[in-house]
């Protein structure tokens, strides 16, 4: 094998040898001019459009991309079901923050709600609207409490590492996105370690964190939100009547005092460093059906209303008497689909 | 003119002997030397320099900055103005200036220290002579206090010897380990020189939330008895603060020898902000973003903030924080208004 490759290379060299002779005819002056011309055009190109390479490789977001907010609105309207509060607030928050060239502090969003209502989904959509590669982008960082910070006794190590990670990445790209999942399972002290980055400082050790975005996801406060939603339902008011203010203050207090919330007695709420508390309402029967339809569409099958109803009926609902809200939100819908469509 | 021509003719053969490179070099060196001798600090227009010993603070500029940007803190403005001007105008101060800023969150402590730093060093917090320390960031682990003490002492000694009028800001003093601050006590005392370095022109600012509840209580008592906010005097608050901070286990100054020896020059209290001050913050933010100030939106944002105490609802819970975020929500309204006006 190796002998054959060596022989092949030698043969290739022999064949190409005659081509070298014309080199004798190359004129030094014209060659020099050609090289100088090429260098000059390359230089002009770089000077006139320094970020040319951004077409080929991923770059940090420097100028505000108008399409980000528009894409975000569109995606949320199309793909997120049953969360009228979320789409309103998230779009305004992200758009306002990206437009603001003189932000005083990084954007900190706290997404709370029942499981399966779309918190990770929304963070994915936000990441994709800012960076094309979404969660795969090298400027988007996702931390899962149970995965990245599992042991309570190594908390000092985690604190140091987290601080270095955030500092390093924000100094490379000021417009970084950090997503912290399972906040209700995170050690209370760990969040305190990133509090300095979320505060109203201009510079910290020479690095400005004012353009970064922090998203915190948790299940804390879900019971409170469900309570509010149930109240509205029992009083005969529509889901869309629920306003942000109805939930916001109740949430803030309950999350702060809940020992299981990652925010318990944390200085984040103390100092009001969270810009927006965004509640996720539990999903109703009709929303589960919408999820099923989307899933069927994405797999390329035709939508059969009968099957959609059957799958939605199979999900479990709470509270026990009224049976309005789905226990798992839209989770396990795709698994149930496999059962009904056997291709 | 006519006479120079024959002169040139005579010198011409001699000129041929002049080497262009060496002549050029000689002229360059001569001009640089002249420039340097006539204005030794000409490079200060390009690179940041330490302010010279004789430079005084611009009193009117400082007052204007404080009046325009800091809302609702008549006490703080008063005290800081007098303290800083007095210190700056004193040709030989006996000890470094030490301010301790106390108050509720969002009342403007960091903001004030930033304004101060900008007056002393034009680059403000970005200056290499202004140093900001955060207890939770720079001194996080309580078991490493010895290391932090040593590092802090070396840092301060090194920087003050480089520039005598350095500014050191310590934030989150209530979260700092009491031992760390004891480490810098020698620098703050009435010594002429410590190991050959004079600390008398430096400025130390301590920020903390400790005593905030005491100040709020005092302000509320004033309000309840019908007196005006502007009538609150420093002497009403200072003794309260000094003891409350000294005895509060959570204050970084707890039983610290700094208060023991009365090394803090001024305790500056920050009163909690009322709704009218929050509205001023909103207006300033709108102006900074280039929008026209719309009173409806200002009122809407001010109404969204939460206030304490529960019944009377006078003082804002978060001071002026999160105003920007709330403005983003109402921005749609603003844009629509702007479009409507054309």
TrEMBL record, chain A:
GO cellular component: cytoplasmic vesicle membrane; endoplasmic reticulum lumen; growth cone; nuclear membrane; synapse
All residue ranges annotated as the Torsin-1A C-terminal domain in the record: 283-340
Annotated TM spans: 35-56
Keywords associated with the record: ATP-binding, Cell projection, Cytoplasmic vesicle, Endoplasmic reticulum, Glycoprotein, Hydrolase, Membrane, Nucleotide-binding, Nucleus, Signal, Synapse, Transmembrane, Transmembrane helix
Membrane topology: Peripheral membrane protein
Signal sequence, renumbered to the chain: 1-25
Entry protein name: Torsin-1A
Automatic annotation (TrEMBL), chain B:
Keywords of the record: ATP-binding, Endoplasmic reticulum, Glycoprotein, Hydrolase, Membrane, Nucleotide-binding, Nucleus, Signal
SUPFAM superfamilies: P-loop containing nucleoside triphosphate hydrolases
Domain Torsin-1A C-terminal: 273-328
GO BP field: nuclear membrane organization; protein localization to nucleus
InterPro entries, per the entry: ClpA/B, P-loop_NTPase, TOR1A_C, Torsin, Torsin_1/2
Binding, ATP: 103-110
Major localization class: membrane
Places the protein is found: Endomembrane system; Endoplasmic reticulum lumen; Nucleus
Keyword Cell membrane: no
Signal peptide: 1-17
Molecular function via GO: ATP binding; ATP hydrolysis activity; kinesin binding
Record GO cellular component, one term: endoplasmic reticulum lumen
Coiled-coil blocks: none
Similarity-based family: Belongs to the ClpA/ClpB family. Torsin subfamily.
Protein name: Torsin
Upper taxonomic lineage: Eukaryota, Metazoa, Chordata, Craniata, Vertebrata
